[in-house]
Each structure stands twice: as C-alpha cells, then as structure tokens.
Amino acid sequence: MVNPLTDSHLLPDISLLLESCSKTSAAEWAIGCARHVLSLFEKGSISDIRPHQALEAGERWLKGIGSEQEIRAAAFEAHAAAREADSSEGIAVARACGQAISTVFSKGHALHAATYAAKAAAVAHPFDTNALEQERVFQYRYLIQLLKSEESIPSSDMTTEA
C-alpha cells in the first residue's frame, strides 16, 4: 500500500512495469528520471559537476562505450556529492544520479533512483502539493514510452491513465 502523503498511486504500476523490462531499459529509464531533476542540483551547487558526470557515465555505458569500473567510480562520486550537498533537494538529486547509474549492476536501483528524483521535486516545491505526483506521472509516462518503443509490453497494458 502506498501512503498518498509520501508517494504516488502510480508507484505500484511503475514497480510492476520495471519488473518486466531489461536491466538496460531500467538503467535508461532511471538515468532519464535523474536527468529530469538534475537542474535542481545544479541550481544550488553549480561548481559540483559529479552528479552530471555520473549520468554521462551511465549514458556512455548505455551506448556500449563505458565500463563498469567507470560506473562504479561515478556512482561513488555522486553519493559523495549528496553527502556534501547543502540542500535537501540537492541531496536527493545526487542520490538519484548515483542510484540511476548503479542500475547497471542491479535493476533494483532504478526504483530507488526514481524515488529520490520524486523526493527532490517534492522538496524543491514545498508549497506545491502535486509536485511529487507530477514527477511520478512524468516517470510513469517515460517508462511507458521506453517500453512501447522497445515493444516490451502489449498495447493493451498501456491504456492506464496517469
């Protein structure tokens, strides 16, 4: 059961869809979710480029030109940036980046990355009670789009309205 005060009704659907996709698709989705909120980190920590570099390392891996060693190092650096961030949204964004690229090693990291991204959106907009839900809607639609482009799910499964 999802607590509507802390997360979205879409979380179970996202989780179910992630179970059906490949680790590579999950990594692409997680990196996209983290990139969607990256500007929240960059706004407050302009000189710290480690989360951005982490996503770039993940994108290189998706293209087949990055190494797992590079991913591991970049993930550690993104988490170090989270420990050094001076805002709650900055912490959440940096964690989203570290978790996103860690999906290369374990698909389970994808949902953690998305959760940190949703948390960053919610914290960055404390007076917008729909910020978290809007981020989850983006994540859900983006996942559907990725899976549809790969023909991983039947069209009838994509009729759920977000």
How is this structure best described in words?
By secondary structure, the chain is mainly α. It has one domain. 69% of the residues lie in helices and 0% in strands. The protein has seven helices and no strands. Helix 3 runs antiparallel to helix 4. It is flat, with a radius of gyration of 15 Å.
Q: Which features would summarize this protein structure in a list?
A:
162 residues; mainly alpha; 7 helices; 0% strand; flat; disordered C terminus
Integer count of domains = 1
Helix content bin: 55-70%
What is the CA–CA distance across the termini?
Answer: 18 Å
Shape: flat
Report the portion of residues in β strands. under 5%
- Secondary structure tally: strands: 0
| Unreliable runs | 154-161
What's the quaternary structure here?
Answer: single chain
Topology order in helix (H) and strand (E) letters: HHHHHHH
- Individual helix count: 7
Query: What's the alpha carbon Rg, rounded to whole Å?
Result: 15 Å
- Tell me about the largest β-sheet: none
Structural class: mainly alpha
Mean of all residue-level pLDDT scores: 88
